[in-house]
Task: structure prediction
Amino acid sequence: MRRLLPCLPPLPAVRSACWAALRQAAGRALLGLLLAAAALPAAAQTLEFRSALSTTAGGPLFPTGPNAREVALPHDWARARPASGDPQWYRIAFQPFGTLERGDLLALYIDRVCSNLEVHLNGQLVHSGGRMSGRLTNNCAHPQLVALPSALIGSGENQLDILVAGHPLAEVGSRQRAGALSTLVIGPQSELAARHAQRLALQVTAPQAVGATLLLMGSFMFVLGFINRSESHLAYFGAMSLGWAVADARAWMRTLPFSHTVAEFLLVALFGFIAWAAVQFLLRYAGVRDRRIDVLMPVQCALIALTLLVAGPQRLHGVATAWYALLALEVAAAAAWHLHRTRNTRSVWPMAALMIAVTAAAAVEFAAQWTGVRPLAVNVAQLALPISFVLVGLRLVQQHGRALAQSQQDRRLLEQRVREATAEVERNFRQLSELRVEQVTERERKRIAADLHDDLGAKLLTIVHTSDNERISTLAREALEEMRLSVRGLTGKAVRLSDALGDWRAEVVSRLAQAGIEGEWEAPEDLPQRLSARAYVQTTRILREATSNIIKHSGATHCSVRAAIADGDFQLVVQDDGEGIAPEVDGRLDRGHGLASMKHRAKQLQGQCLVESGPGYGTVIRLTVPLDRATEPS
Result:
């Protein structure tokens, strides 16, 4: 089966095709029921015979002799002659009556004969239902309408002989398949045809249509449940429907390719399979799976077949009756357990309605078999059970479709969440990787800073305090300050902006004073922002370079430094009153290391450093650094 599945069309296409076929078959079943309901029984001039002379067959014609006796019709062999399977003759006598329309004939209507018959009118064979020996033709569900030729009907008393061939009760699994003959009705063929059409629709046409629907639906549900192992109850319901459709077909099929004994054996054994599927469906649909039942039900099916073989065809009815009773109890117990398990769910009501319909149909059929009376209610009851299966099957398919749609929606939602989770995991992994790199880098920076501070710092400090050369001592002190600034940048510790401004003021004003330049500092106090170590280091170096340029090249006597925060930026303006930058030097500003390095450092902070100068007007350096990139919240 699994190898064949890839060759099948897509499941939605299969479902659509099966739904179309189910609707068509259900339409045929409904048409048959409407035809049966529309056909009204004949109520004109008819003769109904409720008794007949009967004798065991002794030849091709009704045997004359003292053995004939009067029997009541319907004549049920299951009660009148349960042990005998010999063909039986029945004779009635009638006289012409009433007035027939032109072209109309008298006809004999037989509501039920089991299993086959021949009709003789005044010694002449006028009708044969099929094989009368060997594999008898099965006409148990087929009503008979036999035209009586006018040429064979005399003006006086006429004799109508009916030879019935059937099976004894011991050789059939159900009483309804034992030999029997119903009441006989003689009347105008045009009037009896309506009654015949009604019975034929109820007993043959409608069961055929419902059986075809059940067969198609059962096949579809079995495949559906086999593919979706999580919904195995669909497979069991499909198997039960298939089994019931096959068993029900035995009632209206006229001929079979094997003998009556084999047919009865297979039919009784089939009910064991149907009960197995029914019990498993009821339990699985309620969410229950019992390993013991999974083993015992197949064993029971094998045991049914074994006991039938041991009993033989002469005791088949007794063994079958016992098994039918046991199987009915098992299905009833499974149904009760199912209703108990699902009593608080919405699915309890459809199943409860199905149980009621099955119970009512079984009660009517049981009463008909034991009383011998087969009213119209029996035919309706026989149709009620497969129709109930069809309705429940359609509901199960509908529920499966809804569950499938919901599962697809859940799958799409799950896939979306998986994609989101995957993206989040990847994002977290990248962040973790970056964090680990940053942590490693931070550790390395701290190691380098410690080495610089402990080794190079100690040596520079020794030179500052021990050197006799003032220039060497000054250079060592400047190198020490630069090293300390680098170490602060490497450690990565943020600096409060107000503290940074204080350090810069002290350094700038001190250097300007040493050079004989008057320094002026203007900056806000108590700023809450914190500068990152990188921003602090780069800004310090820019400010140092600007101060160095003023001292060495400007010839200024006054220098002002203004710090401010405006439009989210940190602004620093350094202005001197020196000679300014000559035109021939202005074009080479960016080539020098000082001004170029200042602009480069500002660019690294996503800011800018502008130089404004003119001969005799001094120089203005404007540094702008975005606070969101240079500061950290306190």
Summary: The domain at 47-199 is CATH 2.60.120.260 (Jelly Rolls). DSSP finds 15 helices and 21 strands in the chain. The chain has three domains: 5-40+202-412, 47-199, 494-632. The longest helix spans residues 376-466.
